[in-house]
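Team,

Forwarding the record for the chain on the shared tracking sheet. I've put the sequence and predicted structure together so nobody has to dig through attachments.
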Amino acid sequence: MSHIENQETQFENLLDAITDAVLHNPDDVRAVIARHPVPATRLDGLAELIARLNATLTPQQPQDRFVRQLKRDLVGQQSGLLARLRYLPGRVQIAAGLAVIAGGLMLFSRRRGFEIPDTIQDAEIPLLQQR
């Protein structure tokens, strides 16, 4: 481990100790600062900054919708019929689209009271098939 990495690790440990003291035992901050070989005047500003950040930044809960969307993005799962159809081959997508259109037209014509031609109405229907 190089000298610079060692100094960075020591500084990270110092910041961690000061942050823990500010968050959990504010009366102990002076004792934590006194334990380290860095001048206290340089660390007072850091301790004050940590205390201000702690007072200013409040924890936020994300909305459920955001959490679900983030999970889908990270895991790669997509929900819904359109998302599942997207991964089908092109011919299957076209067939599914035509089926939806045909079904829609059938429902639409049925709702409008589309009249059955007379030739079909006059045909003899066996007794078992009549409703």
